[in-house]
Amino acid sequence: MGKVFLVGAGPGDPDLITVKGIKAIKQSNVILYDRLVNKALLDYATEDTRMIYCGKSPNKHSLTQDEINELLVKLSLEGYTITRLKGGDPFIFGRGGEEAETLKNYDIPFEVVPGITAGVAAPAYAGIPVTHRDYSSSVAFITGVMKDSVDEDEYWKHLALGPETLCIYMGVKKLPDIQKLLVKHGKDIQTPVALIHCGTSQKQVTVTGTLEDIVEKSHQITNPAMIVIGEVVKLRERMSWFEEVASEQNVPQLIY
């Protein structure tokens, strides 16, 4: 029987992976890695480690989630030590929970190695704290992509007057719909918004605005990107730091 490490690779900057995550990579025979994992992290593996790409882009999946689950089981039963390397944190929109359930069903040993999620890291690198004593005491991590069975109107109604900071993953293409639904259900149209593309990398681009004008400004931003909505976005004006550091230092690039 082998073993599986469900490892969060962090948001992009390869220096943000945990020490435990690096240890898992180094001891594995097989690594199954996702699209938003910085490939520089694969250099920690031994030369004979087998690499399997499991990336999913919005319109194309190299492997379905069921196929990934089946592969984890098959390789584990063959005795391999596996690192399932996932962008960000495996349990925050990483479908790591489904993989852990599958492994548990087959009594396959596994460990979860948390990672820094983009919902925290990208705003931080843009100079935006997701909580702040004077602006926000609550934050929600939200997906912009949901099952067909979900009532989107009710979904965004629940969030419009809920947490003070909204961090939205996979939502750039649906930004016009998100904006309309939040405003429809009572979110102030002057609420600050930030769009952060490729957070924590040299490719990072941040665009700010309000719910009133952010859709017009969003044409510069493509996936992968985080949407941050809330008063904390105002702090970027005096807390922005990464752009200056990146221009002075050799900040690691995102290698996809």
UniProtKB/TrEMBL annotation:
InterPro entries: 4pyrrol_Mease, 4pyrrol_Methylase_sf, 4pyrrole_Mease_sub1, 4pyrrole_Mease_sub2, CobA/CysG_C, Siro_Cobalamin_biosynth, Uropor_MeTrfase_CS. Keywords: Methyltransferase, Porphyrin biosynthesis, S-adenosyl-L-methionine, Transferase. It holds the Pfam family TP_methylase. It is an enzyme of class 2 (transferase). Coiled coil: none annotated. Residues 3-214 form the Tetrapyrrole methylase domain. CDD domains: SUMT (cd11642). One of its GO terms (biological process) is methylation. One of its GO terms (molecular function) is uroporphyrin-III C-methyltransferase activity. Its EC number is 2.1.1.107. Gene3D superfamilies: Cobalt-precorrin-4 Transmethylase, Domain 1, Methyltransferase, Cobalt-precorrin-4 Transmethylase, Domain 2. PANTHER family: S-ADENOSYL-L-METHIONINE-DEPENDENT UROPORPHYRINOGEN III METHYLTRANSFERASE, CHLOROPLASTIC, SIROHEME SYNTHASE-RELATED. This is uroporphyrinogen-III C-methyltransferase. It comes from Mammaliicoccus sciuri.
